[in-house]
Amino acid sequence: MTTTLLSLFAVFLFFLVIFYIAKTIELSSIAKNGLKNDYVKSTKVNAYLAMFFYIVGMIILVMTTISLAPRMLPESASVHGVEMDKMFDVTLWVTGLAFLLTQTLLFFFVYFYRYNEDRKAYFFPHSNLLEMIWTIVPAVVLVALVFKGIGVWHNVFDFQQLDGKDPIVFEVTGKQFAWVLRYPGADGKLGPREITHENINEFNAKYSLPNELGIVWTDKASQDDIYPNDIYLVKDRPVLVKLGALDVIHSFYLPHFRVKMDCVPGMPTQFMFTPMYTTEEFKERLKNKKFWKNIDPKTGEPRWKGFKFELACAELCGKSHFGMQKNVVVVEQEEYDAWLAKQKPFYKTVVKKAMDRVDNQ
Fold this sequence. Notes:
48% of the residues lie in helices and 15% in strands.
């Protein structure tokens, strides 16, 4: 962090020096020639400075790309994420080439066509052909990218694909500043929720037990639901996540699975995806990658050994937003079944004990 700040400060000082050098040259020229500027000389200086800025900027761009590329997200760990990555790569190449072309032309024109009193400018007011080229070509490219995106979007949100595939369905509710996870128990059904004053506040007042999700605890479907600390998923088994929020907008973000969906108070949302690798398999895929095989100074081991899939909040939701993280563990079906069998329903371990204590008084 300190190195980064010092580097940014050094870059700032570099451009500040360039600015004051240019200002000094300009002022000295005015002092020498009065108010009459030497336009040939000043435009020549500006042209050289522009070319210098272009060359240094491109060098920094290339060096930054080489340095930071290994730190980018590794390959997608979900099926739909593969298509998203392809779409991202195509967009990056198209916009990157357009950026390089336009910036190169811009700075080269500034340099080669600087003011020259012996040269007369060619008057070129309009060209229908050029207007059509730089209007139609970008429009066609953008339309192609949009249609590609619509296709990927349709595949991600076509929930009919889940019919007959026995997806893992669970609920995630965001609040300041934590995630509440709820998995169905042995019956495979999530218990109903009733967002009313009586069901939430009166239950809390009677039993001194928060019912922030508005769970109807008298319903048997609610009495075997579990509230785990970590998200557990199964390789190659579809997942349907039902999302909500209690206070402000949060954002359910699984970067390695290319999943991001806002959690909006009063507006249920959902997202589906299919994991492609277990956590251990993904670690193996990272072993030989440049960044991940380096030693982590915190642990003294290669970074890939400490890798974990992560749930984070991608919406700035308050002062402790940074702490909204949970681990995501992807396993085989047998491991998932064993994990699920060990989980104890929240109703039996917490709710029923509180209700019995109060009702028996």
